[in-house]
Amino acid sequence: MPEHRSATTPRPAAPGAAAPAAGRGGAPGRLLVRVRERIQETAEAVSLVLDAELPYAPGQFLTVRIPGGGARCYSLASSPHTGEPMRITVKRVPGGLGSGWVCDAVAPGDVLEVLPPAGAFTPGPGGLDRDLLLVAGGSGITPVLSLAKSALAAGRGRVALLYANRDPDSVIFREELRELAGEHPGRFTVLHWLESLQGLPTAAGLGAPLAPYAGREAWLCGPGPLMDAAGTALRAAGAEAGRIHRERYFSLGADVFAQPAAPEPPAEAGVEAGAEPAAEAEVELDGRTYRLPWRRGTPLLDVLLAAGAPAPYSCREGACSACCCRVLEGGVTMARNEVLDDADLADGYVLACQALPLTDRVRIGYA
Ligand code: FES
């Protein structure tokens, strides 16, 4: 899977997605998972099958600690709806520290330090029952395969996949896709695009194959130029912009494993002389309601982690949407936001890692 990723069109993490179910690492949210099996998918791509039963939603990713410092986000290729074990798939990036380590060094029996599954590249309630169009390029197939298997196993709609690759040898999951299509005739259609035969996929070239599916909810993951071309082709065919979801790449600028999970405890209301009294946060998360003082300059995520709440997060930089939640009452501002668009903001979505209170009382919901 490409290193570092993010998504548009956020949805709160799946219910319970932040609840740890494996061995705990040294700080809140961190987990230790053992590698059960290593699968060489292609010459450049490796899957790691994990001994872990973490709640997750189709299309989500794991943040994995990389030896020597840093972390990478790798999408799960497995489906939470098929009973299969969790599996991440990683494609070697030239010079990539994380992908090089996974592809060259990680072996069965090794233990990985991870954060709970997160990410917003996942259909919301009822989303798996709709007809879907999936577009993937190269290792962008990883979360897309999870969506496809989940929709076919747990949904009622039809699924079409356009999958672009350099040549036949670089097609990851070729056999698995062929078997899925055979098991679901009439429901699952796979269209391969090979650059060695058809050239680079352009908006003009993708117009004809994608047009029949322009009315479907579309999920795109792959290199930026491919997603741009597919998005343009779909818009030209009449697709609504709000129904086109993209998985974006981003860089984790900080080592999320090296940072303290809760750098600053929330203050008691008005405890500092001259300081503006703390706001009150009422947060519905994982079946519980937390009522917490919220210091004006402290991000909501830090307040929640300091209180021991299992709030999801990954980058803590406003770039991945793993911490996405929704304002139900009151107002917040965000110090940084690289993933939410105007429509998301209008729907009340915010990033907990960047959210600061604007009103004395704010009610927040997850999932
Ligand atoms: S944790 Fe990545 S945007 Fe908040």
UniProtKB/TrEMBL annotation:
Enzyme class: oxidoreductase
PROSITE patterns xref list: 2FE2S_FER_1, 2FE2S_FER_2, FAD_FR
Leader sequence residues: none
Cofactors demanded by this protein: FAD
Single GO MF descriptor: metal ion binding
UniProt keyword list: 2Fe-2S, FAD, Flavoprotein, Iron, Iron-sulfur, Metal-binding, Oxidoreductase
Region annotation (Disordered) ranges: 1-27
Residues spanning the membrane: none
EC number: 1.17.1.-
Low complexity bias spans: 10-22
Record's protein name: 3-ketosteroid-9-alpha-hydroxylase reductase subunit
High-level lineage: Bacteria, Bacillati, Actinomycetota, Actinomycetes, Kitasatosporales
